[in-house]
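#struct-help
A.M.: can someone run this one for me? Single chain, 111 residues.
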Amino acid sequence: MEGLQKRFGRLVAAHRRRHGWTQRTLAEKAELSEDMISRIEAGTTGASFSSIDALASAFGVDPAELFTTEIPGGALERRTLNEVVAQLTPLTDRDLKWLSGLISAALKPRN
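D.P.: on it. Structure tokens below:
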């Protein structure tokens, strides 16, 4: 289990560095303590599902991306898109359909 914790910690640290964030910044964005971020990155503690979800939301990625080195090309460079996706994630299908219609209407060419 310790090997998994260390690998997970290294991947979290890699995501954090790609964003150019300090541990404090990540802690604030994920609403976790800076000490918890430090321990996760060092691999000295495991992360609960809620912590994994909070970290993924902070990074604007799917939680599965915190377990792989295969990060989609350019995904971390599109911060605004990731922030929008993070805001959409908790919405219901009904709300997403409504919002999709709104976006389509806003993007329609004007004559």
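A.M.: thanks! Residues 37 and 70 are 22 Å apart (CA to CA).
D.P.: also worth noting: DSSP finds six helices and no strands in the chain.
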